[in-house]
Automatic annotation (TrEMBL):
<feature type="binding site">
    <location>
        <position position="70"/>
    </location>
    <ligand>
        <name>ATP</name>
    </ligand>
</feature>
<dbReference type="InterPro" id="IPR006203">
    <property type="entry name" value="GHMP_knse_ATP-bd_CS"/>
</dbReference>
<feature type="site" description="Transition state stabilizer">
    <location>
        <position position="30"/>
    </location>
</feature>
<keyword id="KW-0479">Metal-binding</keyword>
<dbReference type="InterPro" id="IPR006204">
    <property type="entry name" value="GHMP_kinase_N_dom"/>
</dbReference>
<keyword id="KW-0418">Kinase</keyword>
<dbReference type="InterPro" id="IPR019741">
    <property type="entry name" value="Galactokinase_CS"/>
</dbReference>
<feature type="binding site">
    <location>
        <position position="227"/>
    </location>
    <ligand>
        <name>substrate</name>
    </ligand>
</feature>
<comment type="pathway">
    <text>Carbohydrate metabolism; galactose metabolism.</text>
</comment>
<keyword id="KW-0067">ATP-binding</keyword>
<feature type="binding site">
    <location>
        <position position="131"/>
    </location>
    <ligand>
        <name>Mg(2+)</name>
    </ligand>
</feature>
<dbReference type="InterPro" id="IPR014721">
    <property type="entry name" value="Ribsml_uS5_D2-typ_fold_subgr"/>
</dbReference>
<comment type="function">
    <text>Catalyzes the transfer of the gamma-phosphate of ATP to D-galactose to form alpha-D-galactose-1-phosphate (Gal-1-P).</text>
</comment>
<feature type="domain" description="Galactokinase N-terminal">
    <location>
        <begin position="12"/>
        <end position="59"/>
    </location>
</feature>
<keyword id="KW-0299">Galactose metabolism</keyword>
<dbReference type="InterPro" id="IPR020568">
    <property type="entry name" value="Ribosomal_Su5_D2-typ_SF"/>
</dbReference>
<feature type="domain" description="GHMP kinase C-terminal">
    <location>
        <begin position="286"/>
        <end position="362"/>
    </location>
</feature>
Amino acid sequence: MAAEHAQQVREGFTALYGTEPDGVWAAPGRVNLIGEHTDYNDGFVMPFALPHTAVAAVALRHDGVLRLHSADMPSDPVELRIADLAPETADGWTAYPAGVVWALRQAGHEMPGADVHLASTVPSGAGLSSSAALEVVVALALNDLCGLGLKRWQLARLCQRAENIYVGAPTGIMDQTAAACCQAGHALFLDTRDLSQRQIPFDLAAQGLRLLVVDTQVKHAHSEGEYGKRRAGCEKGAALLGVDALRDVPCDGLDAALDRLGDEEEVRRLVKHVVTENRRVERVVSLLESGETRAIGPLLTEGHASLRDDFRISCAELDLVVDTALASGALGARMTGGGFGGSAIVLAEADDVPALTKAFEDAFTHAGFTAPRVFEAVPSAGARRLV
Ligand code: ADP
Ligand code: MG
């Protein structure tokens, strides 16, 4: 399927620009297995790559012009002068790839110009990080074509700068690192403080397991403001506790920390989630490394309860997925991503998948919600050159 997608994008490039691309690259979307809202607290995350990818055909040009086109957006190519790129000036989707070129240039790398045509199978706005896939695929292509020799983690950093500063979205480092660094059959254990990482075996099929992504297709309007509030509350918690970040509160020091926070009820809840969530990531890592994949199920479910009750970023649709999954025999389930909509993940025995899929449909119909989109997430490869 990847080869077919690559061929289509290559042909699209030629039809659009009238020349052959210099190459074709891919970068995946991701699901975060566990470690939610820990990234801006210097904590642990554990994403894995989806088989869904953004694929870009790219050719260098030498006149300082950047042309951008997406097969998924019905418009003519957008033409920009690289020397004129400036944060928060670009409109719409082109801000992501343009931001990458801007960030590379800001880091001192000469950008001669490029024609880009891309197409993505990563669902957009579903919490599966279609934006990082776009950024990383362009960054990797330019790294290769311009011979920059940047490492994967460095590309991820530059893509994060593109999204934070150029696009103006305050995201952590997880999404870009996942797209750049994940490996097939593995989840990526990432320490967001020092960016150290470890590939953790996560070959579900070999153990008769499946991981379902249930995209509720809802996005509740207040999500961005709520994200900002959670972030500010976590920073307040760290300040009150006298630590650089909540990552520095050990799990066995949680009760003492909560005592110190006194009647700061809201902050106490946020701190409790972040501290216990970091611990859950470490426990999932050790279970997976000892081959006890089924045993991570209850930790996923605990993580959901913490996000729902303490961090308070779930919603009726996400809770319905989790409750339905558990009632229908799943090993564990949790919301994933920023919250207030987007997707949930469900760990299940392979044999139970048809019954679960039906149960989600029935439960959503009964509740009067739009049917969710359910698909299987196979831990897949990170960014790579296809052609
Ligand atoms: P997520 O990363 O969770 O999917 P974001 O809001 O961060 O959600 O990113 C979605 C945005 O990324 C879209 O609004 C669009 O600007 C851009 N995008 C995603 N996929 C494509 C695509 N195939 N073509 C062009 N732009 C895309
Ligand atoms: Mg995004």
